[in-house]
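B., you asked whether I could sanity-check this one before it goes into the benchmark set. Here's the sequence:
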Amino acid sequence: MKEDKKGSLLLGLAAMLAVVVIVALVGVFALKEEEVLITGEAEASEYRISGKVPGRIEMFLVEEGDQVKKGDTVVVIYSPEVEAKMAQAQAAREMAESVNQKAKHGARHEQIVGAYEMYQKAKAGEEIYRKSYERVARLYERGVVSAQKKDEVEAQYNAAKATVKAAKSQYDMALKGAREEDKAAAEAQVAKVDGVIQEIELARAERYLTSPIDGEVAERFPKTGELVGQGSPVMSVVDLNDAWFTFAVREDMLQDIKVGTALQVRIPALGNELYPVEVTYIKAMGTYATWRATKQNGKFDVRTFDVKARPLRPIRDLRPGMTAIVVREKTRNMPTIVIQK
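And here's what the prediction gave me:
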């Protein structure tokens, strides 16, 4: 009986000792520093290609994933409106040029000859009326004709002289051609139409969309034959050489992160190698990203900050969307971030 009690006591002591060991191990692991991961993703500069003229996609010259150089033609747009405007402008150009040439060259030869003959005819009539007037004037001085007759012949003579002046003016105008003002107006009209044609030519050139950078075609939005409006994006090109990482970090983890701080990140898609990066941007995110504290635990609301970091050296095979990890260490007190100073 005593031996049973003694065995039970030993068994109880062993069980208690086991509980103590388990509690101690749990405490050790609980107090042990653990790694907390700050994760983000890679991003790169993306450029959207759009046109200034509306039309239909006539053809794509590149596929998604193709490498392009700055200035390479990637899309051709067909715009019948531009072609119609060009036809109208060319017709207006021909008309304006005809008016300009007429103003420069003046009247035709036949018009000049006709004006000269009218001038000579007027001069002959003036000569006749001059002689008649002189004859009547002498007779009037002798008292042979009345004053009324003399006035009638004098009026006819003055009218003949006026006719000569008018004929001479018409003849001179035919010789000189259009006035300088008319010539200038005709030249200005030609220049105006040339400006319209130049504008349409620029619109024509906008039918051929080119890449603004050296990069990779990330996405094509419409399909061949679809209608696109002015300024509508047609394609996006990404510059893989201009990449960075973005992280969403709570503000209670920012005590050791400043602009200019050097960190190391691991990119699971590229293996376990660590890549040095430098923090270049820190900004609070919107209220939607605020961590709300409860009154029961006595904590305060914690905001989330957008942190950007750029690689200190090119990272081969890095692509937008890849996950990036910053390794941190967490202690019982305030968490600290493992960084390079």
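One thing to flag: Residues 329-341 have pLDDT under 50 and may be disordered. Otherwise nothing jumped out at me.
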